[in-house]
C-alpha cells in the first residue's frame, strides 16, 4: 500500500526550500498598483533610465512594428542590465516558444572574467538582440537537417523583458523569436509577428477607404484568453503514474458524487485554493500580466483564471506565463495544477477561450458595433471579413486546435462541436439579414428588464442571449473562439485567425476599391459597401448558426449546409497543410509551404507520441497495479469462502462474486494481451501511425479501461493502490 495514511492535509507542510515564495514579497495588504509590473522593464522604467533620444527612437520602432537601429541596442542593453542587476539578477536568457508547445530558456550569467582575477557584469546590445543556440533538439518537422544544427534567437522588442524570481535566483527573461540558420521559423512567435504585420496592413487599407478620422498608423489584434484548470493534491497526483506521465487518468471508476449537483460552478472558492490563486496573481501582477477574473468552474476541483485583454503578441507571451506560474506556485500549497483537456472521464474537461478583436493604435475597437449599428459601415466590413474568413477556412481553424487531448472535448457535449460555425446573436443576425437584402434600416434594441421588485434597478437587456454551444461566438465587441484545449499555446490559433482575416479584408478592400473608383460621393460609397457586403453574406451565411450546437439535429443541418465536420484530430491535422491553407499563409508571408508542412508533421508526431505514452502507461498501470490488486482480492475472497465453509456455513453470494472476479481477471489478462498485440507495430510515418493509433490502439485502450474500472468497484479499498476519483476530486 503506497498511499499516505495521513491523507491530504499534511502536504501543505511538505514545502521544499526551492518551492518557497520568492524574496521581495511586499507586506500583506499592499496595493496592486505598487507592485504591478515591478519585475518588467517596461515603458515607464525605460523612460526613466534611457537618454531621451534613445527612448524616443525605441518607442517609435515598437509602435510602428519596425526593427531596432543597432546603435541604440547597446544603450538599451546597458540600462536593462543595470535594472536587472539592481533587482538581484545574475543571469539572462532568451525566452522563446519552440514548436514543443511550451517555452524554452537557456540561462547565461552576466559575469565575465576581468583578466585581473575578478569578474565584471557584461551585457551588450549584441547579446540582447541575438542569440545562437543548438536547434537540433527542438522539433523542426523536417525543416532542418540534423547536421544543420544552428538556430538563432532574435529579440522581440515589442514584448517587454521581465524577471523570473526564485528564493535564491533572479533571471532576466528576454522574449525572442527562434529561427533556423536559413531563417525559417522554428517557433510560434515568428509567424505570429508576421501575421500581426499582415493584419495591420490589411486593416489599414480598409480604414483608409473609409477615411479614418483619427491618425491611425497601425492596427493590431487584441487577445484575452480564459484558462481552465484542475487542482489536485500533489501527493495524490504523483501516486498515479497516469497523471504523472500523461496529466490525465487512464482508468478510474466514477465517484458517487461528480458534478451532478451543479454546486461547484461559481461556488465559494476553497480557502487553500484561494490562497494559491492569490499567490499566482501576485506573481503575475509583478510580471505585468493583468489578471482580472478567478472562479470555480463546473467540475469539482476545476477553476478558471482570465486576464484583461492586451495586444495579441504580448497576450500570447503572457498566456505562457500564466500556465507557467500556475505550475510554479502550486508546490507551495502542496497542490498540482492539471492543464490537460480531459483529466477525468465522466467529468467536464478544460478548455481555453480565445477572445479576439481588432484595435487601432489609438485605442478604437474595430469590432465594437456601437449604437445604430446598421449605419456603421466600417464595423460591418470588419464583421463580414471575419464571417468570410471563418467560413472559407473552417478546416484550418479546426486544425489549429487539434490535439490528442482536445479530442476528448470537441464534439463531446461539454465543448462546442467540431463543426466550426459562428454565433452572432439576434441583433447582429438581424442586421446581417437586412444587409443581405441590400438595405439595412434599423438596429434592434434590447429594452429594459423589470425584475418585479421595487428595490431592484431596471437593467438594460442585451438584444440576444449568450450561446455557450457555439465554437465561434460574437460576444459584444469581440469574437470568442471556444474550441481551444486548455493546454494550447494560443499563439498558433491567433496566427491562423490573423492570417485568414487578413485575406478576407484584402478581398473586401479590393472589391470596395474597384466599386468606389476615384472621388466617390458618400452615397456612392454606401451603395458600393452595401452591395459588396450583401454578396459576401450570401456567399458565407451558411457558417452562421444561432441555435444549439449540442443538438444532434445540428450535425445533420451542418452536413446539409456543406460545413466540414472533422471529428478527430487526425482527420483535422491531415488538412492543416491543404492547398488553400498553404496559399493563404504564403500569400500573406506568414508561413512558407515548408514552414507549414513542418508544423503539420510536428503536430501529427506529437499526437502519436502523446497517445503512445498513454498506451504504454495504461499497459504498465494495469499490469503492475490493477491486476495484482485484483488477484489479491480474489485470493482473499476465496480464503474467506473456504473459511466460511469450514465451519459448515454457506455464503453463495460470495461464490457469485468470486466467479465475477475470476471472469474479470481473465478479461483483464485478455485485454492486456490485445494491447500488447496492437502496440507491437512497426509504423513510422506520422500520418499512417496516427490513423493506426486512432483506429486500433484507442479502442483497445477503452476496452482495458472498462474492465479495470469494474474491478476497481469490486476490490477492497485497502488493496487498491491508486488514489481513486473519490479521493482526488476533493481539495481540502
Ligand atoms: P466569460 O467567461 O463571460 O466569457 P470572462 O470575463 O471570463 O468572460 O472573459 C472574457 C475575456 O475576454 C477576458 O479575458 C477579456 O479581457 C477578454 N476581452 C474583452 N474585450 C476584449 C477585446 N476587445 N479583445 C480581446 N479580448 C477581449
Ligand atoms: Mg470566463
Question: Can you offer a commentary on this structure?
Answer:
With 732 residues, the protein is α+β, with helices and mostly antiparallel strands. The chain contains 22 helices and 19 strands. The strands form 4 sheets. Strands 9, 10, 11, 12, 13, 14, 15, 18 and 19 form a 9-stranded mixed sheet that branches. Strands 1, 2, 5, 6, 7 and 8 form a 6-stranded mixed sheet that branches. 44% of the residues are buried. Mean pLDDT is 91; it is low at 1-14. Adenosine-5'-diphosphate binds at residues 222-224, 226, 293, 306-309, 355-357, 365, 477-478.
Query: What small-molecule ligands were found?
Result: adenosine-5'-diphosphate, magnesium ion
Number of contiguous helices = 22
**How would a textbook summarize the main sheet?**
9 strands, mixed
Radius of gyration: 28 Å
Note the overall shape: globular
Percentage beta strand: 5-15%
Mean pLDDT across the residues is 91
Number of strands: 19
Structural class: alpha+beta
**Spans of at least 5 consecutive residues with low confidence:** 1-14
> What is the terminal-to-terminal distance?
22 Å
What descriptive keywords fit this protein?
732 residues; alpha+beta; nine-stranded mixed sheet; six-stranded mixed sheet; 22 helices; 19 strands; globular; binds adenosine-5'-diphosphate; binds magnesium ion
Amino acid at each position: 500500500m503506497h498511499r499516505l495514511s495521513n491523507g491530504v492535509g499534511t502536504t501543505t507542510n511538505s514545502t521544499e526550500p526551492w518551492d518557497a515564495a520568492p524574496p521581495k514579497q511586499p507586506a500583506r495588504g499592499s496595493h496592486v498598483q505598487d507592485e504591478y509590473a515591478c519585475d518588467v522593464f517596461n515603458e515607464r522604467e525605460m523612460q526613466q533610465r534611457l537618454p531621451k533620444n534613445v527612448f524616443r527612437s525605441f518607442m517609435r520602432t515598437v509602435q510602428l512594428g519596425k526593427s531596432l537601429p543597432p546603435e541604440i541596442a547597446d544603450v538599451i542593453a546597458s540600462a536593462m542590465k543595470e535594472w536587472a542587476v539592481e533587482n538581484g539578477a545574475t543571469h539572462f536568457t532568451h525566452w522563446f516558444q519552440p514548436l514543443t508547445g511550451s517555452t524554452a530558456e537557456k540561462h547565461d550569467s552576466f559575469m565575465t572574467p576581468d583578466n585581473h582575477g575578478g569578474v565584471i557584469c557584461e551585457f551588450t546590445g549584441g547579446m540582447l538582440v541575438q542569440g545562437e543556440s543548438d536547434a537540433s533538439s527542438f522539433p523542426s518537422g523536417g525543416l532542418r537537417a540534423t547536421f544543420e544544427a544552428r538556430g538563432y534567437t532574435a529579440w522581440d522588442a515589442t514584448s517587454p523583458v521581465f524577471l523570473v524570481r526564485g528564493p535564491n535566483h533572479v533571471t532576466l527573461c528576454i522574449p525572442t523569436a527562434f529561427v533556423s540558420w536559413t531563417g525559417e521559423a522554428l517557433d510560434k512567435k515568428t509567424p505570429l509577428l508576421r501575421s500581426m504585420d499582415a493584419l495591420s496592413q490589411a486593416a489599414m487599407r480598409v480604414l483608409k477607404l473609409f477615411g479614418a478620422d483619427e491618425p491611425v498608423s497601425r492596427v493590431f489584434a487584441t487577445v484575452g484568453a480564459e484558462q481552465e484548470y484542475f487542482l489536485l493534491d500533489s501527493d495524490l497526483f504523483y501516486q498515479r503514474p497516469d497523471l504523472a506521465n500523461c496529466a490525465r487518468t487512464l482508468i478510474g471508476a466514477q465517484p458517487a458524487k461528480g458534478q451532478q449537483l451543479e454546486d461547484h460552478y461559481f461556488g465559494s472558492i476553497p480557502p487553500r485554493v484561494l490562497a494559491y490563486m492569490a499567490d499566482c496573481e501576485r506573481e503575475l501582477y509583478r510580471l505585468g500580466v493583468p489578471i482580472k477574473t478567478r472562479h470555480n468552474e463546473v467540475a469539482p476541483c476545476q477553476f478558471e483564471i482570465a486576464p484583461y485583454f492586451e495586444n495579441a503578441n504580448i497576450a500570447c507571451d503572457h498566456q505562457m506565463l500564466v500556465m507557467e506560474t500556475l505550475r510554479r506556485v502550486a508546490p507551495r500549497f502542496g497542490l498540482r495544477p492539471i492543464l490537460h483537456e480531459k483529466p477525468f472521464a465522466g467529468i467536464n474537461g478544460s478548455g481555453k477561450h480565445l477572445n479576439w478583436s481588432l484595435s487601432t493604435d489609438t485605442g478604437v475597437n474595430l469590432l465594437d458595433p456601437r449604437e445604430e449599428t446598421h449605419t456603421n459601415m466600417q464595423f460591418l466590413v470588419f464583421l463580414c471579413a471575419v464571417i468570410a474568413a471563418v467560413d472559407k477556412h473552417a478546416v484550418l481553424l479546426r486544425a489549429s486546435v487539434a490535439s490528442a487531448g482536445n479530442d476528448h472535448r470537441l464534439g463531446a457535449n461539454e465543448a462546442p462541436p467540431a463543426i466550426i460555425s459562428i454565433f452572432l446573436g439576434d441583433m447582429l443576425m438581424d442586421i446581417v439579414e437586412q444587409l443581405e437584402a441590400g438595405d439595412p434600416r434599423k438596429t434592434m434594441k434590447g429594452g429594459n428588464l423589470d425584475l418585479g421588485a421595487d428595490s431592484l434597478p431596471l437593467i438594460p437587456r442585451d438584444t440576444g442571449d449568450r450561446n455557450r454551444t457555439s465554437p465561434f461566438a460574437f460576444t459584444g465587441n469581440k469574437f470568442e473562439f471556444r474550441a481551444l484545449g486548455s493546454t494550447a499555446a494560443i499563439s498558433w490559433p491567433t496566427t491562423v485567425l490573423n492570417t485568414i482575416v487578413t485575406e478576407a479584408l484584402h478581398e473586401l478592400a479590393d472589391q470596395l476599391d474597384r466599386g468606389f473608383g476615384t472621388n466617390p460621393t458618400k452615397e456612392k460609397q454606401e451603395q458600393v459597401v452595401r452591395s459588396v457586403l450583401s454578396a459576401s453574406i450570401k456567399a458565407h451565411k451558411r457558417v452562421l448558426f444561432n441555435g444549439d450546437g449540442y443538438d444532434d439535429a445540428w450535425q445533420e443541418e451542418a452536413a446539409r449546409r456543406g460545413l466540414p465536420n472533422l471529428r478527430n484530430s487526425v482527420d483535422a491535422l491531415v488538412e492543416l497543410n491543404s492547398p488553400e491553407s498553404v496559399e493563404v499563409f504564403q500569400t500573406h508571408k506568414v508561413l512558407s509551404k515548408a514552414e507549414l508542412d513542418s508544423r503539420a508533421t510536428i503536430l501529427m508526431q506529437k499526437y502519436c507520441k502523446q497517445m503512445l505514452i498513454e498506451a504504454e502507461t495504461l499497459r504498465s498501470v494495469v499490469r503492475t497495479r490493477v491486476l495484482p490488486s485484483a488477484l489479491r482480492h480474489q485470493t482473499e475472497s476465496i480464503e474467506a469462502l473456504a473459511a466460511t465453509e469450514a465451519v459448515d456455513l454457506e455464503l453463495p453470494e460470495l461464490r457469485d462474486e468470486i466467479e465475477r472476479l475470476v471472469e474479470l481477471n481473465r478479461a483483464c489478462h485478455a485485454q492486456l494481451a490485445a494491447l500488447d498485440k496492437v502496440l507491437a507495430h512497426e509504423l513510422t510515418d506520422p500520418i499512417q501511425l496516427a490513423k493506426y493509433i486512432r483506429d486500433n490502439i484507442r479502442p483497445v485502450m477503452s476496452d482495458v479501461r472498462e474492465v479495470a474500472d469494474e474491478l476497481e468497484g469490486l476490490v477492497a479499498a485497502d488493496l487498491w493502490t491508486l488514489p481513486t476519483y473519490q479521493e482526488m476530486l476533493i481539495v481540502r
